[in-house]
């Protein structure tokens, strides 16, 4: 990979290599079972890893020109994060040891799903524990650097063992630690535990963490990595650029700002001086106040929810969207009630022309967002 390339540039090149846009492969997705229906579809013999994925949400009318695919990958990553394949605190997940899922090759399919999301303009998983990611990518860490980062995923007994180990100051403390936990640590594969020196306690703590976070589930991790690698060698790409991809695999608190959201949009106005333009200016004033209310936390809507409503994705893809979100207007007819509506495929938001009541506009937008249950439901 070229030195200095951004994650967007890297993923754009990867997508061009990984996806044959001349071929199409369909996934039929059941909204109540996003992950299960995705795994079933991906296990079908006719499913092609290198073809453009076409998403069909079961029971819904609409063509997939990008919107349903973005929505599917967003929902799939969230459901994968909370599945039994992983454990630990939300946003800091590690692999679960599950022999049944290993036998069913589910970790491999999950790895393919993650790689396909990157290849086809979807989001990253954004839920991996940072220490787990560093171990998977063989990123060197300073001794003891992982201890604070991993506390939230360790079971209570392991936390207690680490605390007793790190509090060890004397030979008496050492003897008590070995009596209490020596046999258990030996069973975990920790070497030379009976020769433990107090000055080596930090090194021992790192080994215990590696055992629980990585080696304990090495089979699951290997299967998952192999699944990612089967999609045009995606895991090799990640390992070549571990720092760049870390923010896409691990949780980062970077809420979308008003300024960032506005930069994604372009308003299609009528001719200056026309009656339509005067009405559109009134609507846009209400729209801008609506965005300000979101930014100030005055209404129960986030910019991520608004973005998902319009595009199907609650985060801007690493490569960006194919075009700006186009804001256009529809006429308000007397006696006809129409909510603001969208086309997630063509990235369009249609607002009522001539709304000058800020409160009424806010209520329309909130209802449109909260009542949208899927693609082309508004």
Tell me the layout of helices and strands.
Elements: H1 7-18, E1 20-29, H2 34-42, E2 51-57, H3 67-81, E3 86-87, E4 94-95, H4 99-103, H5 106-119, H6 130-136, H7 146-150, H8 156-166, H9 171-187, H10 201-213, H11 218-229, H12 234-240, H13 242-249, H14 258-263, E5 265-267, H15 275-296, H16 303-311, E6 325-331, E7 341-343, E8 348-353, H17 358-371
Parallel strand pairs: 1-2, 5-6, 6-8
Antiparallel strand pairs: 3-4, 7-8
Helix pairs in contact: 3-5, 5-11, 8-10, 15-17
Characterize this entry briefly.
This protein has 378 residues and is α/β, with parallel strands linked by helices.
Task: For this entry, give a set of tags.
single chain; 378 residues; alpha/beta; Hect, E3 ligase catalytic domain fold; Hect, E3 ligase catalytic fold; 4-stranded mixed sheet; two-stranded parallel sheet; 17 helices; 11% strand; elongated
């Amino acid at each position: 990979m070229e030195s200095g390339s951004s994650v967007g540039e890297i993923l754009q090149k990867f997508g061009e290599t990984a996806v044959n846009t001349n071929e199409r492969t369909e996934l039929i997705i059941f909204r109540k079972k996003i992950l299960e229906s995705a795994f079933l579809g991906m296990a079908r013999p006719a499913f092609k890893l290198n073809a453009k994925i076409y998403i069909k949400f079961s029971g819904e009318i609409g063509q997939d020109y990008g919107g349903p695919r973005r929505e599917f990958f967003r929902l799939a990553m969230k459901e994968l994060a909370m599945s039994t394949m992983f454990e630990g605190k939300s946003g800091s997940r590690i692999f679960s040891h599950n022999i049944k899922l290993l036998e069913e090759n589910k970790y491999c399919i999950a790895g393919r799903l993650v790689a396909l999301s990157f290849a086809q303009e979807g989001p990253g998983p954004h839920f991996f524990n940072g220490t787990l990611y560093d171990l998977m990518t063989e990123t060197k860490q300073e001794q003891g650097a992982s201890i604070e980062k991993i506390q939230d995923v360790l079971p209570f007994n392991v936390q207690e063992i680490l605390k007793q180990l790190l509090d060890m100051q004397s030979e008496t403390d050492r003897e008590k630690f070995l009596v209490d936990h020596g046999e258990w640590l030996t069973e975990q594969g920790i070497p030379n535990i009976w020769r433990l020196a107090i000055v080596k306690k930090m090194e021992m703590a790192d080994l215990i963490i590696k055992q629980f976070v990585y080696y304990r589930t090495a089979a699951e991790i290997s299967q998952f990595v192999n699944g990612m690698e089967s999609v045009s060698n995606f895991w090799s790409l990640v390992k070549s650029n571990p720092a760049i991809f870390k923010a896409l695999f691990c949780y980062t608190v970077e809420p979308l700002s008003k300024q960032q959201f506005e930069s994604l949009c372009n308003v299609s106005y009528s001719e200056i001086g026309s009656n339509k333009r005067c009405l559109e200016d009134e609507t846009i004033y209400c729209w801008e106040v609506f965005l300000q209310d979101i930014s100030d936390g005055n209404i129960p809507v986030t910019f991520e929810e608004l973005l998902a409503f319009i595009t199907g994705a609650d985060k801007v893809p690493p490569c960006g969207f194919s075009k700006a979100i186009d804001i256009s207007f529809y006429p308000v007819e007397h006696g006809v009630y129409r909510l603001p509506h969208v086309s997630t495929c063509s990235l369009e938001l249609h607002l009522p022309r001539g709304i000058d009541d800020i409160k009424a506009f806010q209520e329309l937008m909130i209802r449109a967002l909260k009542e949208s249950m899927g693609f082309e439901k508004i």
